[in-house]
Write a structure and sequence with these properties.
two-stranded parallel ribbon, two-stranded antiparallel sheet, 13% strand, Nucleotidyltransferase, domain 5, globular, alpha+beta
């Protein structure tokens, strides 16, 4: 799972291939660092969360609302065209950037810490390239 802001990856979480990503949703949202640069107390949590149909569970919607986050999650069984693709493409672009690193396309490492280290290194390189291009 990847949390992005303005096209820059903020948080990365690694889960097993046989576990559902939605189980890590709240811990990943809670681990977002404060967003600096604005006057006053920096905001800690995002105002909205955009996700695909894999995260469509009423339990997690309620928990996000309790944290003050508006969930923008596509419903299962509803035809496409909800308009979430305008925001979802940012995450898909992040996955495309990560897949530029051949080692991350297919997980060859048996140990999770090695794979997570390579994933974090790739995110750092992506951030460096994005920030130097500005």
């Amino acid at each position: 799972m990847i949390v992005e802001a303005n096209g820059i990856p903020l948080q990365v979480s690694l889960t097993g291939g046989n576990s559902n990503d939605v189980t890590q949703l709240l811990s990943l949202v809670d681990s977002i660092p404060p967003i600096r640069g604005l006057r006053g107390r920096p905001p800690h949590l995002p105002r909205e969360l955009f996700a695909d149909r894999g995260y469509d569970h009423d339990k997690y919607r309620r928990m996000l609302r309790a944290r003050g986050i508006t969930p923008r999650i596509a419903r299962r069984g509803v035809v496409h065209g909800s308009g979430l693709g305008r925001h979802r493409w940012v995450v898909e672009r992040g996955f495309a950037w990560l897949h530029c690193y051949k080692r991350l396309r297919t997980r060859w490492e048996r140990r999770a810490d090695l794979h997570l280290g390579l994933l974090q290194l790739a995110c750092a390189l992506i951030c460096h390239r994005r920030l130097t291009a500005l």
